[in-house]
Amino acid sequence: MAEKFKAAQQLDGEFLLLREAARKGSAPAALALGEMYDPATYTPETSPLPAPNPAQAAAWYRQAAEAGIAQAQYRLGMLLMSGKTDEPNGPEVGISWLRKAADQGLAEAKEALPK
Fold first, then answer.
1. Is the CA virtual torsion 45, 51, 55, 56 positive or negative?
2. pLDDT > 90: what percent of the chain?
3. Residue 91: phi, psi to the nearest 5?
4. pTM, whole model, 2 decimals?
């Protein structure tokens, strides 16, 4: 039980540090926060959050994606294509983010693009 509590405290601390760094403009921190919120990557073992939040994931991914991080562009694209956000034209916007990631050479993005 103590180990579980300690792990939860570490995740809380990591979350706070990442959030502070992302708010100061760190794109890698924004990507990591997006992964904590994303329903596709969320697990209680890797996120201090009680549940995934697609809208928050999209917001953090967008910050990192706009900074040019291909993995964030891919994850944002996949999330928008899933329809789990309230983003207007989500699937179409998602495809454009996947194209940006694919243009940077990210294989997963190339594979995810509609044929």
1. negative
2. 79
3. -60, -40
4. 0.90
